[in-house]
């Protein structure tokens, strides 16, 4: 069998698709640090940055253009104000989005993707295509 490395993902005797496997000694002990937290695998870091129920949807919609808070609230169905605020703060902290506050009354705030935020869009497009293909998704009649 062919041996390949996943760049540090820590699993006991990891088995990969198509019969690939990783010996334990290749993956033990590797650590990554991001935001002062230890991770054993870069995939963990990616999920920490964009995981959760709302972040990918927010990134998906911000890819098209900058948006205000209420616009995001409308396009991300079911998200509470508190959760949307929390997710936006985390994504701003992680360098995925930038928040611009305009000195107006009432305050105007816009969110837009950073270069890092834009860099994940090809992955989101692949996830979009994968979901359509794997789950036989069809558009509802009202969307056509």
Automatic annotation (TrEMBL):
Residue span, HTH hxlR-type domain: 41-139
Domain of life: Bacteria
UniProt cross-references to CDD domains, sorted A to Z: HTH_ARSR
MF (Gene Ontology): DNA binding
Pfam families per the UniProt record, alphabetical: HxlR
Keywords noted in UniProt: DNA-binding, Transcription, Transcription regulation
TM stretches of this protein: none
GO terms (BP aspect): regulation of DNA-templated transcription
Designated name of the protein: Predicted transcriptional regulator
